[in-house]
Amino acid sequence: MSDYAKQLRQHRRLTILKLLHEIPEYTSNASLLTEGCNRFGVTTSRAQMSTELAWLSEQGFVALSGTADFQVAKATQSGVDVALGRARHPEVQRPGPDA
């Protein structure tokens, strides 16, 4: 994986967590999260979103529900902590100081 692809993946993960943090009840479906990432300039396909949500779930940053065709993600407290910069993970971009 190129350095750019790795950096983009880290930004995508942070963007997903930040979007979930800002949504009421910290919950959204994969389709809306994909649109949100793209709106913020973090190019994301539906397949990439599915992959990233699975990874974030494995790390304990989101809880997934729904089906393979309609995933719903909810940020966990650990995910919110990473989104706000209170906790760090080497595979998630660190937010700026104004997070």
Brief write-up:
The protein is α+β, with helices and mostly antiparallel strands and 99 residues long.
Question: What report would you give on this structure?
Answer:
The protein is of the alpha+beta class. It has one domain (3-83): Winged helix-like DNA-binding domain superfamily/Winged helix DNA-binding domain (Arc Repressor Mutant, subunit A, Orthogonal Bundle), CATH 1.10.10. 51% of the residues lie in helices and 13% in strands. It has four helices and three strands, in the order H-E-H-H-E-E-H. A three-stranded antiparallel β-sheet has the order 1-3-2. Strand 2 and strand 3 form a beta hairpin. Helix 1 crosses helix 4 (77-83). The longest helix is centred in the first third of the chain and has 20 residues, at 3-22. The chain is globular. The N and C termini lie far apart (28 Å). It comes from Ascidiaceihabitans donghaensis. This is ArsR family transcriptional regulator.
What attributes characterize this protein structure?
99 residues, alpha+beta, Arc Repressor Mutant, subunit A
Give a topology summary:
Layout: H1 3-22, E1 27-29, H2 30-39, H3 46-58, E2 62-66, E3 71-75, H4 77-83
Antiparallel strand pairs: 1-3, 2-3
Approximately what portion of the residues adopt beta-strand conformation?
5-15%
Query: How much helicity do the residues have?
Result: 40-55%
Number of domains in the coordinates?
A: 1
- What would you say the CATH architecture is? Orthogonal Bundle
Order of helices and strands: HEHHEEH
CATH third-tier fold name: Arc Repressor Mutant, subunit A
Determine the structural class based on helices, strands and strand pairing: alpha+beta
Q: Care to count the β-strands?
A: 3
The CATH homologous superfamily: Winged helix-like DNA-binding domain superfamily/Winged helix DNA-binding domain
Q: Please describe the biggest sheet, giving its number of strands, its sense, and whether it closes into a barrel.
A: 3 strands, antiparallel
CATH class: Mainly Alpha
* Rg from Cα: 12 Å
Quaternary organisation: single chain
Poorly predicted spans:
none
Query: Helix tally?
Result: 4
Mean pLDDT rating: 95
N-end to C-end Cα span: 28 Å
Form type? globular
As laid out across the biggest beta sheet, the strand order is: 1-3-2
